[in-house]
Structure formats: structure tokens, C-alpha cells
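Tutorial, part two.
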Amino acid sequence: MGDKSNNSLDDIFTRALSGRSLYKDRNALRSDYIPSKLPFREKQIISIGETLAPLLHGSKCSNLLIYGKTGTGKTAVAKYVLMKLSEKASTRNLKIKFAYSNTRVAGTEYRLLFDVAQYMGLSVPFTGLAIGEVFARIISAINSSIITLILVLDEIDFLVKNYGDNLLYELTRANEQLPKGYLSLIGISNDLKFKEFLDPRVLSSLSEEEIVFPPYTAEELKAILYDRSKIAFFDDTITEAAINLCAALAGSEHGDARRALDLLRVSGEVAEREGAPKVEERHVRTAVQKIEQDRMVDALRSLPLQAKILLWSIISSGEANSTGEIYERYSNICHKINVEVLTQRRVSMLLSELDLLGLVTTNLVSKGRYGRTKKINPSINLQFVREVFSEDPIMNSLL
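Running the prediction step on this input gives:
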């Protein structure tokens, strides 16, 4: 078995070395790549720049909330402006730093503050300290270094929906503890309604300025893909039809540039593995299927434990269930594995997130004179979920 695997790997690596790569720089198609120009976002770039500009002459700036659907350039534009601000600040010997944390990726309030501490060069253990202690160390470092810290909280709605707004409240009040330094906040969200979860005091401090990013049009996506493909691929290795199809597919889904770039990147990888001389439409169609499967795997793996338990309580029944039936099954599973049972309100919020991820569907069913009830249906294959959840030791005990 080992010899066979080694031979297969040798074949793969030999093919990779002998074949001509289609890519000049595949990193140019990744979501965290910041290009030298960001077309169709000039207005938003200027708005963010004007908000932060007072920092360059020692004044305070407003906190900022940035809204827009996934793939509308929010994170890329924010990082682009902050990079330009840092360059300008360094020419004037100004101590302006920025820290970035995606709250969904961080997962917990502690991990979020850990990310911030890492950006600031602070030595903080991965676990073990109280959240208040990590926060105090960050504030102390800002003050003692006399710096301005711009803190970017991406997917800020995830933090608020899962942990409330206590940490945000402390962050918005941080400047009261900073006689020498300064902290400015930039929140980025896909959900315009998340403000409903905020305490009015937090909302007034956090949303001093707001900027909305509209979806890209199909024509704008096409132009973005053409620009990026010139950086990513060698000449004459991708067809115009493949680029147009990527733009059309992403344009039909709320103008998502991230999806368009992912589609182009994976299409190239499919073509390269096949040994094709060019990326063509057929490679894009294969890439669509691969991305959807990978997206589902990533979505399942990244679910918090409570969401995994809730999804399993829905999908293991194999049929549509009312929210009451689901909550009863969810509670039984929690008791079985000794996990805290969340309130029905929190479970209802988790159900909405599972619906948003496309893992379940929610329908209102008429019960005649008894009114209407909400029925939850699984939208994903039981065996597929079982395979992914088997990687989690706690969930594996239920399978």
C-alpha cells in the first residue's frame, strides 16, 4: 500500500515539474490578496480615508461601521486604506498601528483579544488568562507606547450575536482609560440588522460613521476578473469565455467578487491538474461543483459545538420538524453528552444561522384554525454530515 502511494505521489510531482504551469501568481486570486488598485470602490476608499485622515495631524477620528454583502470588497478596501495610512504615517514618524481580527474565525472573545495582542507584539498565552486581564494588557500597551491603534473587527455581527455586546462596550469606552494613547474601531458586517442586538450606548459610539458597499454588477465583476487574471495567469492560458462565465455566475449571486475570484482560481487548478493548455468553460463548471462541496465541508467544520448539536438533532431525524420538536431533541442530546442547554431564544438564533449557511431550510406551514407553525428541513445529506462531524471527538460520540 505504501509503495503504491509513493509511486502515485511521484507521478503527481513529476507531472507538476514537467508540465507548464498556467499560473504566474495564483495568490492574486485569493481573498486576502490586496491589489494595487481596487476598481469601482473609489467612493468608499475616499470615504474611509476622510474618516481616518484626522489621525495624521494628531486628532481623533470617528469610529466606523462598514456594511455590505459578502464579496463586495469591504475587507479589501479597509485593509487597502489602512495600508496607505500606515505608509503616510511612517513618513511623518507617527505611531499609528492597526490590528485585524475576523471574529468568526477567532471564535471567542479571548481569541479576538489574543489576535489584537499578537498584532501589537504582546506576549499573551493562547489560553489561560481572564478576558479582562488580556484587555487590560492591550490598553496598558497602547498607553505606555503612546500609539494610535485602529482595531478592525470583521464579521462583527458574529461577535454580537454569539457573545453579546459587553466587549464592544468596553472597547468603545477604552479611550477613557487612555490619557496618552488612542483606540479607534472599524466594524465590518454582512448584516445590516445586527445593530438591533446592540445596546443604544454601544450603537451611538460604534456607528459614528457608516459606509455601505453595494454589490458589484456583472460588468464590474468581468472587469475585475480581467484585471486579476492578467496578474494571476500567463498570457494565452485562459479563455475569454471562462472569465465571462465566472463573472456571470458570481453576478447572479449578489455580485460576489470573492466567489468570482475563487471560481477563477479553482477553474485554473482543475485545468492545470488535467494538463490542459488553457482554462475553458468546462473547467469552470467542474469548479462550481468542487467549490460547493468544499464550502459545505468548511461550513460544517467551522460550526461551534452548539450549532453542530442543533444541526445533528435536525438531520438525524430525517424529516421536517417543528421548532419545539427540534428543541426537545437538541436538549436531550446536550444532556446525553453533558453540554450546557441553550435557551430557546439562542437556539432560534442558531437556527437562523444554519438557514443562512444553507444547511437547513425553514418553511411556514398552515395548521388551519390552529394558525401556522415553522417547519425545519435538513438541506444536506446525512452521510456527508456524519463524515465531517466524525472528525470532532465530541460529535463522533453521537454518530
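Residues 103 and 159 are 6 Å apart (CA to CA). In part three we will examine how such features are distributed along the chain.
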